[in-house]
Amino acid sequence: MLRKSSARLLLLLLSFAACIKAQAPPPAPEPKALADLGDVVTKAMAEWKIPGLSIAVVQDGHVIYAKGFGYRDVENKLPVTTDTLFAIGSISKSFTSLVFGTLNDEGKVDWDKPVRTYLPTFQIQDPIATDHATARDLFSHRTGLPGHDFVWYSSDFSREDLFNRMKYLKSNKEFRQGYEYCNLMIMTMGYLEGRVANTTWEDLVRTRVFQPLDMRNSNFSVTDSQKAPDFSQPYELKDEKVVKVPFKNIDAIGPAGSINSSIDDMSRYAIFQLGDGTYNGKKIVSPANLKLVHTGQTPITGLPELFTQNGLGPMTYAMGWVDTTYRGHHMVWHNGGIDGFHSLLTLLPDDKTAVVVLSNLGSSVALEPIVYSTFDRLLALPHDPWIERYKNATEKMKKAAEEAKKKGDTPAKTGTQASHPLTDFAGEYTNPGYGIVKIAQQGSDLTIAINKMGPYPFSRVHYDIFEIPEKSDSRAAGTRGQFYMNSDGDIDRLAMPLAPTLPEDIVFTRVTEKKK
């Protein structure tokens, strides 16, 4: 997820630009089947309040549809174009697995040798996984280590620091015993690639993917995006209103999700992914490795109805991709989301067809119905009412989540008291994996900061249990924390459920203050 090319500024010399254009796939006429696709897009955008969106459809090596809709900057009424940069989030993972495939072609790495072959200091808490986990295991999320996303999301830890902290993070499953999506594992693979090639992950993606595919606008950091002449602002829904939010810099976790790109660039990437590993006659990766990264490795179970209904087959995580079927057609896809942005790249390899959608509203489900509606039209399938179906499904999920929330949280017990005065809870608490939590007293309440995230109100619920309020703008909104005492009666620990799939809380130990 890192990006440093500002190639859009280069637009170079006229003669060179003409040369580049000559190499690009020739445009194809927009098919009649997609005559009403614009109506589908605008309806979905209105339903889910998306400010701006761009979409490209490719088929048989050609871009057959590419358009921008809405605004990249609502406040200044700047329209989305096919050059507008959006964060593509976890679609970045497929770039990382592609780079590994190129290194494998050169004999520098092996999908099935232990990661420790290349990174001797690789370590997670499970000793078996530490010794035996391979690139295939890390790319397909089967090491047993869950997300632990607050480690990188809340901090400015470097990539190397994140790598070194993994040994303190608890696993949720036994090694190779199930699917556990973990951004840190893909980050590790990008870190490995850079070390093996004596460079950086960013440089490898730039030279092995961006440059040969003529992805001139794409980059690795929201810092670079904001220097470009055509980039999107990030937006979120707050109380059903669209509001602009700050850009989230995730450079350190880059290989798992920090790439920014435009629909023009991503259409070239999609055409390449549907091919044989070459682009404009130049080999980028072997056909075998391109097929391998699309091939399912780890079954994904327990998915909500939204992902398993109406013609979608069982899902298996491949390597930076999800392998499944759509109404009998082989489908390979990945989505991506980070603050203010959501994206989706979906391939039908046997049909040589793909759809890319980039948007500037975080956590939106609007992109799937747009993609499926496009496939229905191109494949001459019955036009299912995908927007209505997703609208109903999301309402159902929202109600279920609200009910689960009511059942999951113990109501506040009245008439309780904290075990200590509030000032006794204030201080720093540390965890070797997660970093530092700072608790401060503010009036008759506490505040909490998790690394660089916060401070936020930390209000007492009952006894020694406090909560970041649901209406807080924190990603940890609604999270409770419990303080514990040592045998001397002093507050010395804080436990919080920051890794939701783990059955136990993350424990932060109070830093002992030096006596003056």
SSE map:
Blueprint: H1 14-23, H2 37-48, E1 52-59, E2 62-73, E3 78-79, E4 86-87, H3 92-105, H4 127-132, H5 135-139, H6 150-153, H7 159-165, H8 183-196, H9 201-210, H10 222-225, E5 235-238, E6 241-244, E7 260-261, H11 263-273, E8 278-279, E9 282-283, H12 287-294, E10 298-299, E11 316-317, E12 322-326, E13 329-338, E14 341-348, E15 353-359, H13 367-378, H14 386-408, E16 427-431, E17 435-442, E18 445-450, E19 453-462, E20 465-467, E21 480-485, E22 491-496, E23 506-510
Antiparallel strand pairs: 1-2, 1-15, 2-3, 4-7, 5-6, 8-9, 10-11, 11-12, 12-13, 13-14, 14-15, 16-17, 16-23, 17-18, 18-19, 19-20, 20-21, 21-22, 22-23
Short description:
The chain has 516 residues and is an alpha+beta fold.
Determine the fraction of residues in helical runs and give it as a percent range.
25-40%
- Gross geometry: globular
Uncertain segments are 1-24
- The helix/strand class is alpha+beta
Strand content: 15-25%
Helix count? 14
Instruction: Count the beta strands.
Output: 23
Mean pLDDT: 91
Radius of gyration: 24 Å
Strand order of the largest sheet: 3-2-1-15-14-13-12-11-10
